[in-house]
Amino acid sequence: MKRILVTIIAFAAISFAAGAQDMYYAEMLSRNNYYGTARSVALGNAMTALGGDLGSIGINPAGSAVAPYGQLTITPGVLISSSGASYSPDGSEVFGKAFRTSHPKFNLPNLGLTMVMYSDSRSAVDYVTMGVVANTSNTFLNYTTAHGENSATSFLGSLAAGARGTDYSNLPRDLYSAYAANQIGEFGPVGSNRYVGANQRLNSGETYAYVPGTLDQTAMYNTYGSKTDLAFNMGFSIQNSFYLGFNLGIPFLTYQREEVFAEAAQNPGAFPTIFEVPGGKDMTNYLSSDNTYKLNTKATGVYAKVGFIALPTEHLRIGAAIQTPTLYQISESWRYFASACYENPTYDGEAMSTLGEYNYNLRSPYVFNAGIAYTLPGVGLFSLDYELTDYSVMKYKDVDQFYSESTSWDRTNLINRTFCGSSHAVRTGIEVKPLPVLAIRAGYSILTDPEKYWDDEKGNRVTAETVQFIGNSSAIRQNLVKSHHFDSITHAVSLGAGYSSPGSFYADLAVRLTSYPTAYYSPYYYGAYDAMDSAGRSINVGAPLEKLERSVYDVMMTLGWRF
Length: 563
What we know:
This protein is mostly beta strands.
């Protein structure tokens, strides 16, 4: 390996390469997983036709007008992310034992205040409600760790393959970090721009590289952050039988992602590494290496929402609401870290890239809600909701461009339209009151994946990840047939109880379990490469694959006052 003998390393400045702005990332930032008050969560957030609760305002703005009194609520809570990750070193469907991790976090899923102003007795409007409510609409907490053994490929080998053909001074941030940390180095004639990983070995003719022993590999994928919608609400009660509401919504989003990949030689003696030094060459054994990618995303947006609740009979309620697409302004920063350890610590290296930064805009989907509920005062209620979210309208653009212009995002936006469709959610809730001051609640919801799946003429599934070139959407569909995919469904079940005092105070408790569909993650930045064995024969294996299973447990309590 050729060692760069400098004290201070100036990293190459390149265009952004965060690898985040794709269809899956836009869908993740746009998705809603409603929290709100403990009552709304316990009822499965089937609140479109119910209202009367500050947790319902984010779903249907008319919910504020159902209650003829002002409210103040605060909802502290704790969520626990529980994940299982299993590892396949060759990318096959054969995974090792799952490694389970859990992580708790305190949160504040609801904080709100509404006030009531009564109208003149001759007016058709009974009263007007005005309020400000902050409801969490999604959380991103997820910690996963997977382990495996690999004797066919290495992360550093993948980096070396990704660097091939590029002079070291022009390498992108991640590869230059690896180069500066002595994870990859050049070999062959000067100017050939061929690279080898520190845990690979060259054959005697220096024509190919291979992994000479077994590596212990660990892949970590951690995310955290949340999305909270601040709603400025106004609601109208018309003859106590029709309620109309409006929201000006301002979502605030933070999202952090950390990807860590570590590999270590089981037998360092099998991994000799040669360094060029002044006056000759020196050899030591490779021990281990670590690579980390950190992404930090902050976003604010704006949208409008309008809804109604109608009472065609004393006990029956129907409701509906529609939300405009959210216009997000997104700011991202990211950085790469690399380190390597050898038996001779003289050659240990570590490097940190310059901070990458990028600002852009995203238009998220519109959301439509419809619901029906049947209530028996003093006895209980049943509520059923349907929600439609159209992800095909998602669109990226640069800060200084209009959404209708031709931009550098055209290819990504075309993928959004082709491979994203509508997501459907069904939510249901039930409440029973065994005592005038006590309510027992339960809820259930399902949410479908918006991704469209297509099969080619050979019956092979084609997804957005596999598309390498797109001319136009009609050309895509000429050779693809839509296929069905029913295993990407998110389920949530909830239970709760509520106490309502004869005075102004009330308290609610809710617990919820959300089970997410199984996801797959490939930890090699540059994917699979043409791996060889010691005899120079091609090894037909893919890059490692991590299978992720995730559940989130939520516990929350709402303390509320009526006035």
